[in-house]
Amino acid sequence: MDVGQLQRQFTDYTASLFREGFLDDQFTQLQKLQDENNPDFVFEVVSLFFDDSEKLVNNMAKALEQQTVEFKQVDAHVHQFKGSSSSVGAHRVKNVCVTFRNFCEQQNIEGCKRCLQQLRHEYSLLKSKLETLFRLEQQIIAAGGSIPMVE
Amino acid sequence: MAIEAQFHVLAVDDNLIDRKLIEKLLKTSSFQVTAVDSGSKALEFLGLQEEEQRNHHPQEMEVNLIITDYSMPGMTGYDLLRKIKESSSLKDIPVVIMSSENIPSRINRCLEEGAEDFFLKPVQLSDVSKLRPHLLRRKAEEEEEKPQRNIRKRKAIEESLTHMLMEDLNKFISIEDIFGELNYEFSHKRWKFGS
């Protein structure tokens, strides 16, 4: 595949992620912060996000498995996750967090467990999509091209 | 040679991703950044800064602005703000609060406590770019005030010196009086031991 085709694929794929609500404007803000001094900024932040998310989701799961569920504790983890997902532009993940927090407030354990499942699903979906995006980026660079600028 | 004003910002946020983000935003806006993950670490850093200043290393550690998240475990951003405003050495450092929640009462409370500004998360480059003109203005105001401050300082020193001199002078005069009296006493009495 030539550089032009790769670049078009990249642009189309990015557009679809926004269209389908996986990403929002905050992701664009991250891309704007990337420059020659920090060419891997987005990748670094996103990687941090996924590592951190893994830990938070596990903590939530543990907290929900307790005999007596400490909803405040669960909520604290969800609040963290909501913050990080919002900061990286992980739109759908963030929305699940909002719903999750409501269930924590209501002390609705079933609702919480459903949200946890949804979170896991959304976050692994996003992870694989962003991995695809980063792979495309690397292919473009390897082919000697530059990453198309975001609108 | 004109050097662009270097401002040092202390960023406080318990969230790893947000910390990385605010650090990048600040660096992109040409600020020097120190990022810590709690209010207590921030106070520790600021205390260290105070010590450095006392040891005459002001340039390296001086903090020109503190930007802190509101919701943090242990010490919240609000608690940190209060502690800073209660400290005689730190109260003049501008503090900006960040929060993911848009709660007017929270915002008002912070502003009333002396916060300079309130940023809604996720913080944008446009928010951070507001900071530099603000800091430059403050710096300019401080520079204007400097000659006035120096004159006032001088006057205060002169006054205390004069006061000290007058006190010493008075002491000297009274010692003279005492010596005068003692001489008279000695010449008219015998030492007990010597007799």
TrEMBL record, chain A:
<dbReference type="GO" id="GO:0005634">
    <property type="term" value="C:nucleus"/>
</dbReference>
<dbReference type="GO" id="GO:0000160">
    <property type="term" value="P:phosphorelay signal transduction system"/>
</dbReference>
<keyword id="KW-0007">Acetylation</keyword>
<dbReference type="GO" id="GO:0009736">
    <property type="term" value="P:cytokinin-activated signaling pathway"/>
</dbReference>
<keyword id="KW-0539">Nucleus</keyword>
<keyword id="KW-0963">Cytoplasm</keyword>
<keyword id="KW-0932">Cytokinin signaling pathway</keyword>
<protein>
    <recommendedName>
        <fullName>Histidine-containing phosphotransfer protein</fullName>
    </recommendedName>
</protein>
<dbReference type="GO" id="GO:0005829">
    <property type="term" value="C:cytosol"/>
</dbReference>
<feature type="modified residue" description="Phosphohistidine">
    <location>
        <position position="79"/>
    </location>
</feature>
<dbReference type="Pfam" id="PF01627">
    <property type="entry name" value="Hpt"/>
</dbReference>
<keyword id="KW-0902">Two-component regulatory system</keyword>
<feature type="domain" description="HPt">
    <location>
        <begin position="38"/>
        <end position="143"/>
    </location>
</feature>
<dbReference type="GO" id="GO:0043424">
    <property type="term" value="F:protein histidine kinase binding"/>
</dbReference>
<dbReference type="InterPro" id="IPR045871">
    <property type="entry name" value="AHP1-5/YPD1"/>
</dbReference>
<dbReference type="GO" id="GO:0009927">
    <property type="term" value="F:histidine phosphotransfer kinase activity"/>
</dbReference>
<keyword id="KW-0597">Phosphoprotein</keyword>
<comment type="function">
    <text>Functions as a two-component phosphorelay mediators between cytokinin sensor histidine kinases and response regulators (B-type ARRs). Plays an important role in propagating cytokinin signal transduction.</text>
</comment>
<dbReference type="InterPro" id="IPR008207">
    <property type="entry name" value="Sig_transdc_His_kin_Hpt_dom"/>
</dbReference>
<dbReference type="InterPro" id="IPR036641">
    <property type="entry name" value="HPT_dom_sf"/>
</dbReference>
Automatic annotation (TrEMBL), chain B:
<dbReference type="InterPro" id="IPR045279">
    <property type="entry name" value="ARR-like"/>
</dbReference>
<dbReference type="Pfam" id="PF00072">
    <property type="entry name" value="Response_reg"/>
</dbReference>
<comment type="function">
    <text>Functions as a response regulator involved in His-to-Asp phosphorelay signal transduction system. Phosphorylation of the Asp residue in the receiver domain activates the ability of the protein to promote the transcription of target genes. Type-A response regulators seem to act as negative regulators of the cytokinin signaling.</text>
</comment>
<dbReference type="InterPro" id="IPR011006">
    <property type="entry name" value="CheY-like_superfamily"/>
</dbReference>
<feature type="modified residue" description="4-aspartylphosphate">
    <location>
        <position position="69"/>
    </location>
</feature>
<keyword id="KW-0932">Cytokinin signaling pathway</keyword>
<keyword id="KW-0804">Transcription</keyword>
<dbReference type="InterPro" id="IPR001789">
    <property type="entry name" value="Sig_transdc_resp-reg_receiver"/>
</dbReference>
<keyword id="KW-0902">Two-component regulatory system</keyword>
<protein>
    <recommendedName>
        <fullName>Response regulatory domain-containing protein</fullName>
    </recommendedName>
</protein>
<dbReference type="GO" id="GO:0009736">
    <property type="term" value="P:cytokinin-activated signaling pathway"/>
</dbReference>
<keyword id="KW-0805">Transcription regulation</keyword>
<feature type="domain" description="Response regulatory">
    <location>
        <begin position="8"/>
        <end position="136"/>
    </location>
</feature>
<keyword id="KW-0597">Phosphoprotein</keyword>
<dbReference type="GO" id="GO:0000160">
    <property type="term" value="P:phosphorelay signal transduction system"/>
</dbReference>
<comment type="similarity">
    <text>Belongs to the ARR family. Type-A subfamily.</text>
</comment>
